[in-house]
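Predict the 3D structure for this chain.
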Amino acid sequence: MEKLYPDARTALAGLLRDGMTIMSGGFGLCGIPASLIEAIRESGVRDLTIISNNAGIDGVGLGLLLETRQVRKMVSSYVGENKTFMAQYLAGELEIEFNPQGTLAERIRAGGAGIAAFYTRTGAGTIVAEGKEQREFDGKLHVMERGLTADLALVHAWRGDPEGNLVYRKTARNFNPPMATAGRITVAEVEELVAPGELDPDRIVTPGIYVQRMVKLERVEKRIEQRTTRARAAA
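Done. Predicted structure below.
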């Protein structure tokens, strides 16, 4: 099975449709599948449900899809740093399903593992639990959370091989590995492409069985979301 495609647009050909659910890896701007997001914007698909830790920032990452109003709903744990997001939400134009960050991560992991639902103490007895089943275990209240899956998962990796095996780099790993398992179809963009057998098997995080398509990036723009400085100490 040929998994390698020449560019992001081609890698997504035939996979996109209005109203679908898409998982998008990354945390802030770190490890986001930027080229694949741009290809979705160019495709014009609309009414999307996006599962992602956050919505990028204005004009970058998923913020691009908010600008073009291609997103109907966000399933996230943090939505700060994005004025477009805030404006659309307050105007009733964007639906949000908030999750505690650990709960979101576990919902995605559970979905990829075939676990339909699980119980957690996080959020039990609060507004997070409204409309959800709650149950006592060992005298403590727990809330039931459903596992998450998606029609399409988009991930960014540091290195990959033509078989779809992926290695991530440091904090850019974040949500990418669990999302790669929870998409019915997973498309990966990689910074470096190596020959089969070059990756150390003990360092492979996502086995190729989870990846159906991939694209080698010609350039990688690693933007800093917030740059802070401090005064140098006196010599």
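The domain at 4-117+148-216 is CATH 3.40.1080.10 (Glutaconate Coenzyme A-transferase).
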